[in-house]
Amino acid sequence: AQKVTQAQTEISVVEKEDVTLDCVYETRDTTYYLFWYKQPPSGELVFLIRRNSFDEQNEISGRYSWNFQKSTSSFNFTITASQVVDSAVYFCALSEATSGSARQLTFGSGTQLTVLP
Amino acid sequence: DSGVTQTPKHLITATGQRVTLRCSPRSGDLSVYWYQQSLDQGLQFLIHYYNGEERAKGNILERFSAQQFPDLHSELNLSSLELGDSALYFCASSVSGRRADTQYFGPGTRLTVL
Description:
The structure holds 2 protein chains of 2 kinds. Chain A is mostly beta strands. Chain A has strands at residues 3-5, 10-14, 19-21, 24-26, 33-39, 46-52, 59-61, 64-69, 74-79, 88-95, 105-107, 111-116. The termini of chain B are far apart. The radius of gyration of chain B is 13 Å and the shape is globular.
């Protein structure tokens, strides 16, 4: 069965510090997709990135970067020069086949990031 | 704004009652997914519909049911409500339902059962 572990329950940093959120996953599939979502205090879930299992290139988008390492089954997320607006709960999620063409997401428990001014 | 709409935003009801949550997917999306977010269980997949047909069930209670209509909007029906059903219910949509699809989430419906 698939599983996503986000061991860091809460992280607190001071503005402009860099912070890395860890995500470790388990799957038996050879093809799968990994996602990060952000849940700000307002409650909605905002899509940040999708990565497939055969593309291990790191990705950078502005202050955000993602490091995918298949050898350690990890998909970590780094925010550079953090800002107060980055304060949110961040979820890592995994998509693999369940049955037929259904594709559910399995979420980690989330990491609450607080950026202090 | 993801383009997925959910109504109502908040719902307060009593134990034993029945409620209906509504979701409209993004324009062009054929798949709708329902998730429940609670403090003790986290974010859990409930059910997936593709173009009107049920495709997968997760940890959905028998008291809960859903459907997707010909115009592709979906409703999640929760009956015989219990205190433990209080949670944030999300609807998500995707283009088709393949594992590569990104699921875009609506703002959620916060259900409080008193």
